[in-house]
Amino acid sequence: EIVMTQSPATLSVSPGERATLSCWASHNLNTKLAWYQQKPGQSPRLLIYDASTRATGIPGRFSGSGSGTEFTLTISGLQSEDFAVYYCQQYGEWPPETFGQGTKVEIK
Amino acid sequence: QVQLQESGPGLVKPSATLSLTCSVSGGSLRSIDTYYWSWIRQPPGRGLEWIAYIEYTGSTNYYPSLKSRVTLSADTSTNQFSLELRSVTAADTALYYCALSRDGYNHYWGQGTLVTVSS
Q: Which chain B residue shows the shortest CA-CA distance from A92?
């Protein structure tokens, strides 16, 4: 089973600034990585798949990069609705698909 | 817009069986057979854990540590799929989500249903 590690656990960012979230995999994923956003009381929403492809309807301020074992989600110009928990999920070797423990992006 | 809705009891006694159903509606249902149907859970205040999925053909895959206790089924005529988790303990208390998945990631999610295991 591939272990996913996210850093930091909590990221404090001011509105309008950039947030950079990291995700590491214990094995090579190539680009088989997805990112999800989860707001309080809501289900996760797919943001990014294949490491860098935005899902339908996702604003351009969300971008994903990386390959192999290191991945990054960047949110440029944070807006109030972006404060949430973000999870990475690997599907390089699945099943089982596995998730990181999440990064909470909070208002600074 | 595809919508998924989980249903089932919110409280289950220890050692009993947890049964949930997910109903899929809306969107382009003609393409629904290109997806597989997943269950994912989230213990209170914690992260996400994939449980299992079932393909439109009926083929299934289960998380190894849960495989002995889980059964999935699907009724493609009604676009519903179900989860059974046997011999539950307090560790199975979680928010349970159903999802439509393809290519390894989860495109659409239900709103989730909280299941508490307690006597």
A: B104
Give the pLDDT confidence of B28-77 residue by residue, as tens digits: 545 677 788 999 999 999 999 999 999 888 899 999 999 999 999 988 88
Give me the count of residues in chain B.
119
Q: How does pLDDT run across A55-92, given as a tens digit for each residue?
A: 999 999 999 999 999 999 999 999 999 999 999 999 99
Partner residue facing B50 (CB), from A32, A42, A97: A97
Contact A97 B109 (CB under 8 A): no
Is the pLDDT confidence value at A94 over 70?
A: yes
Name the burial class of residue A19, with classes exposed (0-12), middle (13-18) and buried (19+) by CB atoms within 10 angstroms of its CB. Answer: buried
Which region, left, alpha or beta, applies to residue B112 given φ > 0 means left and ψ of -120 to 50 means alpha? left
Contacts of B107 in chain A (CB under 8 A): 46, 55
Pairwise CB contact (< 8 Å): A95 & B106: no
Task: Compute the nearest-CA separation of B118 from chain A (Å).
Answer: 22
Q: How far apart are the first and last CA of chain B?
A: 39
Q: How many pairs of residues across A and B have Cβ atoms under 8 Å apart?
A: 53
- Inter-chain touch B111–A43, beta carbons under 8 Å: yes
- In the three-class reduction of DSSP (H, G, I as helix; E, B as strand; rest coil), residue B30 is classed as helix
Position B27 pLDDT exceeds 70:
no
Determine whether B52 is exposed, middle or buried from the number of CB atoms within 10 Å of its CB (0-12, 13-18, 19+).
Answer: buried
Strand arrangement, sheet containing A70-75? A4-7, A19-25, A70-75, A62-67
